């Protein structure tokens, strides 16, 4: 059996991390969490990660700049942005950071899981 | 009588009478015009024509002199009666009948008559002149009265004892009372506002321009007024009264309230994105938690159905079935991880409750902020106004800004709290936007410092940021309406001008210190009494 894919969740709001963890409980992922961009980068340097799901608005650095930096450090990791406000994120900035999905809060559990599985290249039927 | 024309002396002399009086008057002919009437009737005609300055009655008129006195009339020229002899009793009788003087027709008649006439003419002149002066005063009074009655402003005048001496129709309308009922009365209940100002004008000579006050009508309704007051000085500079002009500000206040409300809603609009974010975060985890808890419930129900199977088996008493049911229960409990579900359920509920509490707070803060003042000043804690406003704007700025607060204990300030919150809101939003502008897309953070302190006669509130600052050439225009340096859609240009008018309405001042690139510091100074009356000038 292959090792579980590792998903890094980043949000300055601990309650969001805890809720995301609940949503993904049954997905068979290894879940790692970080409460800031700096902490997320530290984790990226320490271990391989298959997907990053990051909040956009965080003190000390936006999710977008975190994902752009993550693209350099872990180009293979799928990058997803999750945000409470969508109108201020330009499409080209999303593309530049190689963001493969934009999820809005509040999110739909089923869609979040499907998006994540697709990003990780997991066929839901397999 | 024309003062410049020659004096007109009318001698009433019966035909054929002695010439001694004519002779005496002849001496005056150069200085005066002398004409002769033969009886009281022609005397009356000339006097009625207003051409005669003084009448002389000839001694030979006898009792006819009475008719001459009558013909001159009460308001007519004075009559000097020449009597045949010096006779005090007769003279008294003539005086009683209205003679101005009596002269005996003997001895030095020309001198005596001349002196008597001179005196009468002098008196007559004085009377005429006084009449003219009285008329000028009456004209002036009427002139002033016309101005007062027809001016658009309400006018109230009091004397040195602070009793009302004038009140024009616009004042009657605003006060809701008749001038008649006010005349000569002291400024009564309901007029406390104007009374205070007028009494200060009377006591100290203070002038007030554009002060704000209010009047309470007899029906209890309150009329906000803009009032100006000044003392009235006599020619020696002694204060003999005071005058107040005022306007009804009800309509203006209503408009101001509407402008304030729309400005407030505009700033709420600017907050909308931040507020949405702040609500979407807890909504996000509450929503996800609910979905998970529904799953937990399904799993727990599955485990419970195994419990029920076991109970049934126990009731049936078949050992094998009991064992099978127990095994299935253990397997299901293990599969759904009942222990985890039960402990995480408690956590998920607690976290969701906390999230919904946060949303409730945001919504109630917003509702509180969008409320309007009642129109009455109330004593309020300025620290609390500042804090609750900071709580509303905090969500939209917390990812970029460190907020430092330094609140000192403050006495209550008589104010319109919602209006003050509007001032703080505008200053905070400006500070945040200045920081955003300085940081740009590159990233970084900023600092906003809120300080309050007590001053000698009020309170001071400072809002300091380390944003882009204010260019020197813009400092003077910062509080002008529609002046903005913000991008289109980011500001109405009314924020600071609204702040300015609100602070002024509270009798305070607002100042800015700013250097380009090094942030800005706004200082709001408020008096404790809310500046209900704002002195201006001496």
Structure report:
The complex is a heterodimer of chains A (126) and B (538). Chain A has 126 residues and is α/β, with parallel strands linked by helices. Chain A contains 5 helices and 5 strands. Chain A has helices spanning 14-23, 37-46, 63-73, 91-96, 109-119, and strands spanning 6-10, 30-34, 51-55, 78-83, 101-104. Chain A has a 5-stranded parallel sheet with strand order 2-1-3-4-5, sandwiched between helices. In chain A, helix 2 (37-46) runs parallel beside helix 3 (63-73). The two termini of chain A are 13 Å apart. The mean pLDDT of chain A is 88. Mean pLDDT of chain B is 86; it is low at 533-538. Chain B has 4 domains: 3-145, Response regulator (Rossmann fold), CATH 3.40.50; 151-248, Beta-Lactamase; 251-372; 374-538, Heat Shock Protein 90, CATH 3.30.565.10. The radius of gyration of chain B is 48 Å and the shape is rod-shaped. Classes of the chains: A alpha/beta (126), B alpha/beta (538). Chain A binds chain B through residues 13, 15-16, 18-20, 22-23, 25, 57-62, 65, 83-85, 87-88, 104-107, 109, and chain B through 273, 276-289, 291-292, 344, 347-348, 351, 354-355, 398-400, 443, 445.
């Amino acid at each position: 059996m292959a090792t579980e894919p590792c998903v890094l969740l980043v949000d300055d709001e601990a309650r969001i991390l805890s809720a995301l963890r609940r949503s993904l409980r049954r997905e068979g992922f290894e879940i790692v969490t970080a409460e800031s961009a700096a902490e997320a980068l530290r984790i990226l340097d320490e271990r391989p990660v298959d997907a990053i799901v990051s909040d956009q608005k965080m003190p000390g650095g936006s999710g977008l700049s975190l994902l752009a930096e993550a693209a350099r450090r872990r180009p293979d990791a799928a990058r997803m942005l999750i945000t409470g406000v969508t109108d201020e994120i330009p499409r080209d900035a999303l593309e530049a950071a190689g963001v493969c999905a934009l999820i809005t809060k509040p999110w739909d559990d089923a869609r979040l899981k499907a998006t994540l599985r697709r990003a990780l290249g997991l066929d839901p039927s397999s | 009588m024309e003062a410049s024309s020659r004096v007109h002396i009318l001698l009433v002399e019966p035909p054929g009478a002695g010439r001694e009086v004519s002779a005496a008057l002849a001496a005056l002919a150069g200085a005066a015009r002398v004409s002769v009437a033969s009886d009281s009737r022609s005397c009356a005609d000339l006097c009625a024509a207003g051409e005669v300055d003084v009448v002389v009655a000839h001694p030979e008129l006898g009792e006819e002199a009475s008719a001459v006195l009558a013909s001159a009339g009460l308001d007519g020229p004075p009559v000097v009666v020449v009597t045949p002899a010096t006779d005090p009793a007769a003279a008294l009788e003539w005086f009683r009948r209205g003679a101005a003087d009596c002269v005996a027709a003997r001895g030095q008649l020309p001198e005596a008559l001349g002196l008597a006439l001179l005196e009468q003419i002098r008196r007559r002149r004085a009377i005429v002149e006084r009449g003219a002066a009285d008329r000028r005063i009456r004209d002036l009074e009427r002139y002033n009265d016309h101005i007062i009655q027809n001016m658009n402003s309400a006018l109230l005048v009091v004397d040195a004892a602070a009793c009302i001496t004038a009140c024009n129709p616009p004042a009657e309308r605003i006060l809701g009372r008749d001038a008649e009922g006010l005349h000569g009365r002291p400024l009564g209940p309901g007029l406390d506002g104007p009374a205070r100002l007028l009494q200060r004008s009377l006591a100290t000579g203070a002038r007030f321009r554009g002060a704000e006050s209010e009047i309470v009508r007899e029906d209890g309704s309150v009329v906000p007024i803009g009032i100006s007051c000044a003392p009235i000085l006599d020619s020696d500079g002694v204060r003999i009264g005071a005058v107040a002009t005022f306007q009804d500000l009800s309509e203006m206040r209503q408009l101001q309230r509407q402008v304030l409300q729309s400005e407030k809603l505009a700033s709420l609009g600017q907050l909308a994105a931040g507020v949405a974010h702040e609500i979407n975060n807890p909504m996000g985890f509450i929503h996800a938690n609910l979905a998970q808890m529904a799953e937990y419930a399904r799993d727990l129900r599955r485990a419970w159905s195994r419990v029920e199977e076991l109970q049934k088996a126990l009731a049936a008493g078949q050992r094998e079935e009991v064992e099978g049911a127990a095994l299935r229960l253990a397997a299901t409990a293990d599969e759904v991880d009942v222990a985890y579900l039960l402990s995480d359920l408690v956590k998920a509920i607690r976290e969701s409750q906390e999230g919904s509490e946060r949303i409730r707070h945001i919504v109630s803060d917003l509702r509180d902020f969008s409320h309007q003042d009642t129109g009455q000043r109330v004593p309020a804690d300025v620290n609390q106004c500042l804090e609750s406003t900071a709580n509303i704007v905090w969500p939209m700025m917390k990812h970029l800004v460190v907020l430092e607060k330094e609140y000192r204990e403050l006495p209550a300030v008589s104010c319109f709290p919602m209006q003050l919150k509007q001032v703080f809101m505008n200053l905070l939003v400006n500070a945040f936007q200045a920081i955003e502008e300085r940081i740009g897309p590159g990233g970084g953070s900023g600092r906003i410092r809120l300080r309050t302190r007590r001053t000698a006669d009020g309170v001071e509130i400072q809002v300091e940021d380390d944003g882009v600052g204010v260019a020197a050439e813009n400092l003077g225009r910062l509080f002008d309406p529609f002046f903005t340096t913000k991008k289109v859609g980011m500001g109405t240009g009314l924020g600071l001008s609204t702040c300015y008018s609100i602070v002024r309405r509270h009798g305070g001042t607002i100042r800015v210190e700013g250097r380009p690139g090094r942030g800005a510091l706004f200082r709001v100074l408020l008096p404790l009494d809310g500046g209900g009356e704002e002195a201006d000038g001496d």
